[in-house]
Design goal:
34% of the residues lie in helices and 18% in strands. By secondary structure, the protein is α/β, with parallel strands linked by helices. Strands 1-2-4-3-5-8-9-12 form an eight-stranded mixed β-sheet, sandwiched between helices. A two-stranded antiparallel sheet has the order 6-7. The chain has a two-stranded antiparallel sheet with strand order 10-11.
Length: 341
């Protein structure tokens, strides 16, 4: 069986080709994730989370609720983060934003206590003019971080993540039965790494895959399960394959990235290069998925944003006013989709 084409091609990492765990699926093909997927932008000045860390089904979770809950009805929203995980202040602030829109938000630790090793303090002071020795040390540290990230990604297989989400959703449905009943199901949003798993939760999967077991090619008459969510919205997903989108059955909204610019410093001159493809979610994967959704008459929305970096929709501070504006627009797109379903 041919390997799925994966929407990940970060230039700074050459990911491991095989999982380090026997019988697990390949972690990814080609390169892996960008800086925005595993590190946070600076936290907006004066902002602080309003939710709390708790446990559901023995899984750590960040929970944030509307100010008038439970006096006013709410919908349950599953929030799947980027690689920085549930203890990221920016991820918590983003979850709070959805709570302010009336959703009861649960952000589970989908990594099982193992967030991306490159997660860093975005507010730490940076050396403006490092010495040659400091630059050498920095490059060495970046090499080690890249290797650690590759090893981390090799551990984040469907066989690990899906059972966590399966167990968590069952517990959340029991814990917040009122919100599930009010919304007629569970809603979900996903950013970067979390985007792939929103698509999987919106899909009909073989029962073995849904519970994190590898599906053998020779199996026949496999019982399918799902989708586990009523509707979903994702922003700049990573590790997404064509097959992930082609499994979708629930309504989905996608925030994607098209034409954007990067600055490169070469021989003392600033050069601007235009890139017409988000290398972490290539046009080919997006367009093939779109064609499938249209052919199968599955309700969907795909909006392509230009002039923004991968990861722009994740909460965090940007100085560029265009990025700030598009970040707001992307959030409004996702909220409107969820409220409309």
């Amino acid at each position: 069986m041919a390997e799925p084409e994966v929407a990940t091609k970060a230039p700074e990492n050459d990911a491991l080709e095989q999982s380090v765990f026997p019988n697990d699926t390949m972690a990814q093909s080609g390169a892996s994730m960008g800086e925005h997927c595993v590190t946070d932008r600076p936290t907006p000045l004066g902002a602080s989370p309003t939710g709390e860390i708790s446990k559901i089904a023995d899984i750590d979770v960040y929970i944030t609720k509307p100010s008038d809950y439970p006096h006013s009805p709410s919908k349950l929203l599953l929030f799947l983060s980027s690689g920085t995980g549930i203890f990221s202040t920016n991820n918590q602030l983003q979850a709070d934003q959805y709570a302010s829109e009336g959703f009861l938000v649960v952000m589970p630790d989908q990594f099982g206590g193992d967030p991306a090793p490159n997660s860093a303090n975005p507010n730490a002071p940076q050396e403006e003019n490092p010495t040659v020795i400091e630059q050498v040390k920095l490059r060495a540290a970046e090499t080690v971080q890249s290797f650690m990230l590759d090893m981390w990604l090799a551990r984040q297989t469907q066989e690990k993540v899906l059972p966590i989400l399966q167990k968590f959703t069952e517990g959340a449905k029991e814990e917040f039965a009122d919100a599930v009943a009010n919304g007629g199901g569970i809603y979900a949003v996903g950013y970067c790494f979390g985007g792939k798993y929103v698509l999987l939760l919106a899909s009909e999967l073989p029962d073995t895959v849904a519970h994190g077991q590898k599906l053998k090619d020779e199996e026949q008459g496999v019982v399918k399960t799902g989708p586990l969510i009523k509707a979903g919205a994702i922003a700049h997903g990573t590790l997404v394959t064509k097959q992930d989108i082609e499994g979708v059955k629930s309504p989905v909204s996608m925030v994607c990235i098209g034409l954007f610019k990067i600055m490169a410093l070469l021989t003392g001159q600033n050069l601007t290069s235009a890139i017409e493809n988000d290398q972490l979610f290539p046009d080919e994967v997006r367009e093939t998925g779109k064609a499938y959704l249209e052919e199968k008459h599955i309700e969907h929305e795909i909006k392509v944003y230009s002039g923004v970096p991968h990861g722009f929709a994740v909460a965090g501070e940007y100085h560029d006013q265009k990025v700030q504006a598009e970040q707001k627009t992307a959030f409004e797109q996702m909220v409107a989709w969820l409220k409309g379903h």
